Amino acid sequence: MIGRTLGRYQIYEKIGGGGWGDVYRARDERLDRDVALKVLTARALEDDSSRKRFRKEALVLSRLNHPNIATILDFDTQEGLDFLVMEYIVGTTLHEMLSTRRLSEKEIVQLSMQIAAALEEAHHMGVVHRDLKPSNIIVTPKGQVKVLDFGLAKMLQPPDDKHVAFLTTETNLVIGTVPYMSPEQLKAEPLDARSDIYSFGSTLYEMATGQRPHTETQPISLVDAILHKPPPPPIQIRQELSPRLQEIILKCLEKNPDSRYQSAEDLQTDLRRLATPSMVPEIESTARPRRKRIHLRKIALYAGIPAVLLIGLSLVLFISGLKKSKPVQNAALNIHSIVALPSKVYASEENLFLSDAIPNALSTHLSQVQGLDTKLPPTNVEMERLDGDFTRLANAYGVEALIASSVTADQGRFVLNVQLIEARTRRLLWSRDYNGLRENYLELVHSAADGLRSALYPSASPIPAVAGEERSTNAELVFQRGLFHMRSYINLKRKEDFDSALPDLQHALKLDPTNARAAAAIARVYVAKLESGAPLREVLPEIDKWAYQALKLDHRCGEAWQVLSVAEEMRPNSDSRKKVEYSLKAAIYASQMGYSHHVLSVALARNSFVLAVEASREGTRQEPLHLTSLLFRAGIISRQGKPKEALKLIEQVLGMEHEMPMGELMKVWVLLRNLQYEDAEKLMTQLEKNVAERRLHPGWVEFARDWLDFEKSTGRKSKEQASAALQRLVNAARGQAPPFPRWEIITGNVIGLQAKHDTTAATLETLSLRAENGIFEPYDWLILSPELETIRKDPQFKTIVARSRKEFEEMISILEEARGLNELPSYLEKPLAEMRKLL
Question: What 3-state class would DSSP assign to 405?
Answer without folding.
Answer: strand
